[in-house]
Fold this protein.
Amino acid sequence: MTARLKLRAEDAEDMGVIAACLQDALIPFGDMKFFPDEARFMLVANRFRWENLSARPSAEQYERVHCGICFDGVKAVRCRGIEQKKPGDVLEILTIIAEGDTLTLVFAGDAVIRFEIDRVHCLLEDFGEPWPTRWRPQHPLED
């Protein structure tokens, strides 16, 4: 069995660690839900296991794993660039930005989900077994 991540963020610096772990995670829009009565936003992601790569990675090392993420203290959620009528659409997360009373999930294709929050409080936990993938996310530098 492979080691699973289980992380908690309580400030912007902690959130940076979770953002790094979630970079290039794939998230079906239908696997995200806001629970306003509980001030909670939850999602399930298929994340690339960056922490599993060696200094000289080979395609045999590339893995993905399912991961549950829970954001607590969420007062409101706003979306931009996301067609909410297509639950099968898959979003690719680029980063998460924590600034003051907002938390912003930035996705490829200029899509954004912004939370109005009481405080930073996020839990991330892998579940299930990782599976191999031949695709390693690439981030070429722009000119």
User: Anything to note?
Assistant: Helices lie at 12-22. The first helix runs from residue 12 to 22. The chain is about 10% helix and 50% strand.
